[in-house]
Amino acid sequence: MNDYLSRTGRIFDIQRFSVHDGPGIRTIVFLKGCPLRCKWCCNPESQSHAVEEMTLAGKTKIVGKDVTVEEVLEEVEKDRVYYKRSGGGMTLSGGESLLQPDFATGLLEGAKDIAINTAMESTGFADFSVIERYLPFLDLYLMDIKHIDSAKHKLFTSQPNEKILENARKIAEYKGTRLIIRTPVIPTFNATKEEIGAIAKFAASLPGVEEMHILPYHRIGSDKYAGLGRDYSLKHIEPPSQELMNELLQVVRGYGLKSQIGG
Ligand code: SF4
Hints:
binds iron/sulfur cluster
């Protein structure tokens, strides 16, 4: 038996048949716990590592469950036939998978051992010595770069960005893992040509990076804040218009990057 199969970690969901967060049809494993507190986060139940209660539409559910690598891989394997046909696989999401390295690297190594494609959606906010453990088992790193200005990054996400930018360069330099940059477009935070342009310029400077996706702000998930007894601080913000998103798309493409709206 492979030693990683008995490792345990905390997840809050497994979503099958996703066509986002990587190529083809994918199973998304949502790990619980995140070091950031983005004001727009559509999965606020992902942020705390603790098991919590969340009430939605009058129903209370427990969010967070401890599982083994083996249990998750059994679920992931169910759709192998769809991955094969579509070029899909397993994506780790969250929360932030970098907070549970033994479990997350066990999932990635396990998936690779059974020939399943791997991707991870991540902020890259960790010591590079942690990230380095993931890369040998990772086909695609979908990395969020939310702002180039560290003070503004901290104001809206609770953390500065120096470590994230430094890690983006190191991940880009690693041969064998493809890196795609993703940027949520949040009015009042970064939804201007200058701010998105600064991120695109940085992304285009990373070796081997050819793609940057821009993801429009939306309100899906805002009711979860009340369900967790928390306040949603971006109530006053409207999603960006299609016209603005198209303009930002052109800005990103102007830096020679392939780009799309949405992930
Ligand atoms: S990094 Fe992602 S999961 Fe973490 S708080 Fe921000 S949006 Fe939410």
